[in-house]
């Protein structure tokens, strides 16, 4: 299962888009913790990279629904 996350950052024209193996609830909990006083929002993507965004610069976080990876000709 993969969840697509779009993060809007203040004063940047582009969004940060990543896919993660975390559930939508885990991502929502990480966002809530960041907004509750943590200095940064930290997420891990499906490629093993770590994305850290300072909480003070968060514009918005859009959490997509969980989708299974497609296999075969249907994934083209």
TrEMBL record:
Pfam families on file: DUF3107
GO molecular function: ATP binding
Keywords: ATP-binding, Nucleotide-binding
Protein's name according to its UniProt entry: ATP-binding protein
Annotated organism of origin: Cellulomonas biazotea
